[in-house]
Amino acid sequence: AQSVTQPDIHITVSEGASLELRCNYSYGATPYLFWYVQSPGQGLQLLLKYFSGDTLVQGIKGFEAEFKRSQSSFNLRKPSVHWSDAAEYFCAVAPDNFNKFYFGSGTKLNVKP
Amino acid sequence: SQTIHQWPATLVQPVGSPLSLECTVEGTSNPNLYWYRQAAGRGLQLLFYSVGIGQISSEVPQNLSASRPQDRQFILSSKKLLLSDSGFYLCASGGSSDTEAFFGQGTRLTVV
Description:
The structure holds two protein chains of two kinds. Chain A is an all-beta fold. Helices cover 0% and strands 51% of the residues of chain A. In chain A, the strands form three sheets. In chain A, strands 2, 5, 6, 10, 11 and 12 form a six-stranded mixed β-sheet that branches. In chain A, strands 3-9-8-7 form a four-stranded antiparallel β-sheet, with no helix packed on it. Chain A has a two-stranded antiparallel ribbon with strand order 1-4. By secondary structure, chain B is mainly β. The mean pLDDT of chain B is 91. Classes of the chains: A mainly beta, B mainly beta. Chain A binds chain B through residues 6, 32, 34, 36, 41-46, 49, 51, 90, 92, 94, 97-106, and chain B through 4, 32, 34, 36, 42-44, 46, 49, 51, 88, 90, 92, 94-96, 98-106, 108.
């Protein structure tokens, strides 16, 4: 069965510091992987997605993620965090027919001034 | 791209009352549609998905049901709400020809 694990429930970083949010997945075939961001009381916005090819994926708002098959990971990174990045971040996996999207439990990011 | 409309945005309902949340989609045809619930401090739980009119799959046993009377309309219902039904409900569209899920703005349901 598919599953997504985000081991960090809360993370606090200082503005301008680098960020890495962890995501591990369990899936029997080649996964399609996503990162979404959710501002409080809002829906989810897609940051980036990985299907195949280059394992380093660039997304919006300066985010990137790296797919590591050997570690079953798809960690999200940003070199320098801005106060506006404070939000909740969700990793997701989908099968190749995209008929379901499974999400991790989310990581809440706080940004210190 | 697609636009997902959900209403109402917030809802307070007494225990035992019925529920109907509606979701409509613009900008696509024959989408896969999803209902997710996000409980306080928890992630997104997939409740139902639909690959076509009248086709509903339930992911978890619960007090809720879903229907898809039209191609781009997805309804979440309950005959009698429980306190545990409180949460943030998100409708999403995706799959088929789309390679990502698009989300509505959600409905905050509080059962009192």
